[in-house]
Design a protein that fits this description.
The complex is a heterodimer of chains A (274) and B (157).
Chain A: E1 7-10, H1 14-24, E2 28-31, H2 37-42, E3 50-53, E4 63-66, E5 69-73, H3 78-82, H4 85-90, H5 92-98, H6 104-107, H7 112-118, H8 125-131, E6 135-140, E7 143-148, H9 149-152, E8 153-155, E9 158-159, E10 166-173, E11 180-185, E12 195-202, E13 205-211, E14 218-219, H10 221-228, H11 233-237, H12 254-271
Parallel strand pairs in A: 1-3, 2-3
Antiparallel strand pairs in A: 4-5, 5-10, 6-7, 6-10, 8-9, 11-12, 12-13, 13-14
Chain B: E1 2-7, E2 10-15, H1 22-29, E3 48-51, E4 54-57, E5 70-72, H2 86-93, H3 103-116, H4 122-128, H5 139-150, H6 153-156
Parallel strand pairs in B: 1-5
Antiparallel strand pairs in B: 1-2, 3-4, 3-5
Helix pairs in contact in B: 2-5, 3-5
Classes of the chains: A alpha+beta (274), B alpha+beta (157).
Chain lengths: 274, 157
C-alpha cells in the first residue's frame, strides 16, 4: 500500500514549521515519527495534500526536570522516554507505559507529541498524561500557550490545536515512587489497547484515566472521587464505566469493554496501593 | 525529490516520489531485495532494517524521513569477506528459521536488541521480539539463536 501523493516539506526549525503550516492551512499535516499518520495514509484514510516533516528537529527532543515538573520535548521517542533516567525517577508510570507502546521498532520511531496530537483515544500515552494531570504546550504564530491535558482532546481524532500550531512540549508533575498502576488488554502484545487503565498518585490525589473507552481519553472522575473519599480499590473500581461511551467492534461489545474497564481499574488501583 | 541515504555504508541517491516508502526505496531503487514486505501494516516486522543502528519497520517510514541517515539491511551485516555476522551465524547454527520469510527482519531485530541489551534473558528476547511474527511459529529456535548470539564474545565487546 502506498499513500496518495502529497507535497513533502522538511522544516528546519519549529518557526519554519509554523510558517509552513500557516501557508498551507488545513491541507497540511505535521509528520513526526509517522507511526500513527503513515498507516492511515497508506489505507487512504488520511490524504493530506502537504506533509511538513519535523521528525529530525533536535530542538524538540529532550527531557528536562523543571522544579516540580518534567518537561518532555514533543519529538522525544517512546524508546527514549522509557530509558530516560529523569522520567524513570520522576514519573515512572510514564516511563513504564512508554516502554509498552507497540513494539521495539515502533518505539524507535514513535514520539510522545505525535501520539498525543494524533488524538486517538486508543493510544496509551495520552491517558498517562491525563491521569498525572499534565499539560501540553502548543506554539503558533502568536507564541506559546499551555493547554491542560483534560482540555486537549475534543472529539474523535480531534484535538485543540489550531491548524498552524505545533505541539512542542509535554509537561507532567513529578510523581516518583511506586504508587501507580497500568493495565492494558490486547490480543497481541503490539496491538492497540482494547481497553486500558492508568492510575497514578500525585500531590493532587489519585488520578485514573481510561484508554479506548470513548471518543477521547477519559478521566474516571467517579473513581477518583470515590478514592478521595476513602473507598478501596474494589469498591472504587465499580464506578469505572460511569460516563464512558466505548465503541463496539470485533474486539468486544460495549458491555464487555465496560466490564473490562472495571477489572483493569481495580488492578491498576491495587498496583498503586489504593 | 532526490533522497540520499547511506545504505550499508554506501551512499545511495535516487530521484523518487515523496510518498515512496523506505522499504520500496531499498528494494526497488537500491536493488536490495533482502528486506521482505510482509503485512505492510507495521505488524509483522518482516521489513525490519536498522536506522542509525536501531530497528525500524521500513514499511512505515518514508524514504524522505531517512534522508541523511545510516540504514543497514540484511545485506549489510556480513563483513567484506562474506563472513556472516554473528547473529546470522547463530540463526544458521540453531536453525532459527523454517520458511525463512521472516528471517531478515528477525535477524535485524535481534541485532538491534543485542545492541541495546548485551546480556538478555530468554524473557528479554521473547519480549524484545514482540514486533516480529513468524507464521511458521518457529519461535523456539529463533529465541535459542538469539540467546546463543548474545553469548558470542565479539557481540559483547
Amino acid at each position: 500500500m502506498i499513500p496518495a501523493s502529497f507535497d513533502y516539506l522538511r522544516a528546519g526549525s519549529v518557526a519554519e514549521a509554523i510558517t509552513m503550516l500557516s501557508d498551507h492551512g488545513e491541507d497540511a499535516k505535521l509528520l513526526a515519527g509517522g507511526h500513527s499518520l503513515l498507516p492511515l495514509m497508506k489505507f487512504r484514510l488520511a490524504t493530506p495534500a502537504v506533509l511538513v516533516d519535523i521528525g529530525q528537529l533536535r530542538e524538540l527532543n529532550y527531557v528536562r526536570g523543571e522544579g516540580g515538573q518534567i518537561a518532555i520535548g514533543a519529538l522525544t521517542r517512546h524508546h527514549d522516554i522509557a530509558n530516560s533516567p529523569e522520567v524513570r525517577a520522576g514519573a515512572p508510570v510514564l516511563a513504564h507505559v512508554a516502554g509498552q507502546v507497540g513494539d521495539p521498532q515502533v518505539r524507535h520511531r514513535g514520539t510522545i507529541g505525535g501520539s498525543i496530537a494524533h488524538g486517538d483515544s486508543a493510544s496509551d500515552l495520552p491517558a498517562v498524561v491525563l491521569a498525572l494531570g499534565g499539560s501540553l504546550i502548543a506554539e503558533g504564530p502568536s507564541g506559546r500557550r499551555e493547554i491542560a491535558a483534560h482540555d486537549f482532546h475534543l472529539s474523535f481524532f480531534e484535538v485543540s490545536l489550531e491548524p498552524d500550531e505545533v505541539l512542542v512540549e509535554v509537561r507532567v508533575p513529578r510523581a516518583p515512587g511506586d504508587r501507580w498502576g497500568f493495565e492494558k488488554l490486547t490480543k497481541r502484545a503490539q496491538d492497540w489497547a482494547i481497553v486500558g487503565a492508568v492510575a497514578a498518585r500525585t500531590e493532587e490525589g489519585v488520578g485514573v484515566a481510561l484508554i479506548n473507552m470513548g471518543p477521547v481519553p477519559l478521566r474516571a472522575t467517579a473513581v477518583e472521587s470515590a478514592v478521595a473519599s476513602g473507598a478501596g480499590a474494589a469498591e472504587a473500581a465499580q464506578l469505572a464505566a460511569e460516563n464512558t461511551e466505548p465503541a463496539a467492534d470485533f474486539n468486544g461489545s460495549v458491555e464487555y469493554r465496560q466490564h473490562v474497564a472495571r477489572v483493569l481499574v481495580r488492578r491498576a488501583l491495587e498496583q498503586a496501593s489504593v | 525529490m532526490r533522497i540520499t541515504i547511506n545504505v550499508n555504508e554506501r551512499s545511495e541517491s535516487h530521484e523518487v516520489e515523496a510518498r515512496t516508502l523506505l522499504v520500496h526505496y531499498l528494494r526497488d531503487e537500491a536493488g536490495l531485495t533482502g528486506t521482505n514486505i510482509g503485512c505492510d501494516t507495521t505488524s509483522c516486522g518482516a521489513c525490519t532494517v536498522l536506522l542509525n543502528g536501531e530497528s525500524v519497520k521500513s514499511c512505515t517510514v518514508l524514504a524522505a524521513q531517512a534522508e541523511g541517515t545510516n540504514v543497514t539491511t540484511i545485506e549489510g551485516l556480513a563483513d567484506a569477506d562474506g563472513r556472516m555476522h554473528p547473529v546470522q551465524q547463530a540463526f544458521q547454527e540453531y536453525h532459527g528459521l523454517q520458511c525463512g520469510y521472516c528471517t531478515p527482519g528477525m535477524v535485524m531485530a535481534v541485532t538491534s536488541l543485542l545492541a541495546e541489551n548485551a546480556d538478555p534473558t530468554e524473557e528479554d528476547i521473547r519480549v524484545g521480539l514482540e514486533g516480529n511474527l513468524c507464521r511458521c511459529t518457529g519461535y523456539h529456535n529463533i529465541v535459542a539463536a538469539a540467546l546463543a548470539a548474545s553469548k558470542i564474545p565479539e557481540l559483547r565487546a
